[in-house]
Design brief:
24% of the residues lie in helices and 10% in strands. The protein has helices at residues 26-36, 55-58, 113-121, 129-139, 166-177, and strands spanning 19-22, 43-46, 107-108, 140-142, 156-160, 198-199. The strands form two sheets. A four-stranded mixed beta sheet has the order 3-6-5-4.
Length: 200
């Protein structure tokens, strides 16, 4: 993912920069790239975690390993869940270059449109889903092509997940039988429901 991630130490002293970004996760790295693409601004990105060069991170099928290692995961847990007999659920968050995107098995899921609408309703002007949708599209190059909701020529390659096995098919059917919608595109018009996830 990060061919330039060869050192976790700065190679020279930096006294001033135009922008300081804390966190080299998906958002921080994209923001740094956008701010420097015209060559006019200097950016310093600070990341607490180390390199993403571990074979456990580079092998998507091993996703359960780095998301359970303190070296790569912040070890956050939910509050006790009353409907789960007080259990606290692990919520993996990446502590590594690339952030959580480095430990999520290449899954690509956008935030739900209703979350963006709620943020704007609570005073975050310019954060409605229609406001942020052009940025999602600009970032994405979908293998199946762009449309009203999906980008077709951005830097991030995405594609519909190709997982096909009897357990996944049974899971989809169980969701349908329970009354949930089956959605053909988890990042398109109808995000809520059961379906195939997109991958990067």
């Amino acid at each position: 993912m990060s061919p330039w991630a060869t050192s976790t130490r700065p190679t020279r002293a930096v006294e001033t920069v135009d922008y300081l970004i804390v966190g080299a996760g998906s958002a921080g790295c994209v923001l740094a790239d956008r701010l420097t693409e015209d060559g006019k601004h200097s950016v310093l990105v600070l990341e607490y975690g180390g390199s993403d060069r571990s074979p456990w991170i580079q092998m998507p099928s091993a996703l359960s390993i780095p998301m359970n290692m303190a070296r790569y995961d912040w070890r956050y847990y939910t509050e006790p869940e009353p409907h789960l007999n007080g259990r606290r659920l692990h919520t993996p968050r990446g502590k590594v270059l690339g952030g959580s995107s480095s430990i999520n098995g290449l899954v690509y899921v956008r935030g739900n449109p209703l979350d963006f609408e709620r943020w704007e309703a609570e005073g975050a002007g310019g954060w409605s889903y229609q406001d942020v949708l052009p940025y999602f599209k600009r970032a994405e190059r979908r293998a199946e092509g762009g449309d009203e909701y999906r980008g077709g020529d951005g830097p991030l390659e995405t594609r519909r997940g190709l997982l096909s096995n009897p357990l996944h098919a049974a899971w989809l059917e169980a969701g349908r039988q329970a009354g949930y919608a089956l959605t053909p595109d988890m990042n398109g018009f109808q995000q809520e429901g059961f379906g195939h996830l997109d991958m990067t």
